[in-house]
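Tokenised fold entry reproduced for everyone:
>
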Amino acid sequence: MKKIFAFVVLFLLIGCSTLPEVTITPTIQGNPAGPTDTPAVPSADAPFLPNPAWQPGVLNPDVTQDDIQTTICVSGYTAKIRPPVSYTDKLKVQQIAQYGYADKTPSDYEEDHLISLEVGGSPKDPKNLWPQPRHSTPYNASTKDTLENTLKGMVCSGQLTLDTAQRAIATDWVAAYRKYVGQTIIPVTPEPTEP
């Protein structure tokens, strides 16, 4: 009887204790080289960014600085690797619920690659895809598409390294937009937008 009583007391004590809080440090996955510290994101940018614990950004291992002229810089490259709408639509619905968005209408979101396909982001990894609002202001899916095309142009013309573009867009794409859009001297050719 004492053993049962001791077990019940122990069980209640364990059940009443709180687990330690776990802090997840976002990193760009798939690229072991480079800095490991993540710069702080300005609080004004945070509402326009994905949750870094859920979508830290993942790289496509098939795209490197050495092969950009045969991958991302080739016209139509992203169309070859873009996941099918059947995959992204299902993921979008799941992630809209995960984010707790009040607006549950899937067409109001673009299932967007944080590290865009244009700069070597992973096509299908859910840690690189999130439901980005189409109608938020001043930053939204259309604004980010402009950044993606600008960064691709800068990387392909040699104005920016692939790693720099990937880190900028993964860390804080809004800050990257402010820094790079309008700073390039080359024309931007838009890629097809994501579903």
The radius of gyration is 21 Å. Residues 42-180 form one domain.
